[in-house]
Design brief:
This protein is mainly α and about 220 residues long. It is built from ten helices and no strands.
Amino acid sequence: MYTGLTHTHVLMSALFLFALLLKSVFLFSGNDEMLERFKRKFKIPEIVVDSLMLLTGIYLAFNSGWTTHGSWFWIKLAAFIAAVPMSIIAFRKKQKALALLSLLLLLYAYGISETKSPVFNKKAALVSSDTPAVADGDNLVEAGAAIFHLDCAHCHGNDGRGGKSGSPNLRESKLTKEEVTARIRKGKNAMPGYERYLDEKQIEALAAYISSLQAQ
Ligand code: HEC
């Protein structure tokens, strides 16, 4: 459900931007007639696209671990909130500069989601710079717990019971230790893959910690 809504949100945002781009082309080329025609013809589809984009966005904002974790999310939201009324006024009053500004802001908001969101596996977004290394002889469960609280808990919850970004309760996970290790390495759907960002020892420690949760 979470993944499906993410895809819907990205698709609706792309359509929203595409419509805005087209309208801007008409506005800038002085083609008022085309602009009016487009607005009239696509009035209903535009309302549908805009509403779906907003509704899925609101749902994702409340249910993803990234609102509490990534400042990119708030920058994007601010850019979006500033741009939408600007764009409405710009196209109503045919103000080119304002249209351009709102378009740039919205492209920026879209771009920041594409590059900063965890789906695109950026190290800075995924792994805290405080993430400890794991040395031979360390208690794996304790070391794993420390990494988990820094890098996983914003989705899975401090106690592994989760809920954010569509994540399952890890205490009830039926996966074997090998499968858990593979899932941490490769990820799945909204679960990011960590193999490029955490080393073998850190992943082993996380798997040990998750085994300890499963055993409780
Ligand atoms: C962006 C949110 C997010 C973050 C951050 C995250 N996970 Fe997940 N995790 C998920 C989601 C969503 C799933 C379910 C994936 C699926 O099966 O569709 C999942 C699934 C898992 C599973 C498999 C559970 C099962 O029984 O299917 C394990 C194990 C796991 N995560 C461990 C971790 C560890 C360890 C970290 C930190 C290094 C982490 N996750 C970080 C969202 C997240």
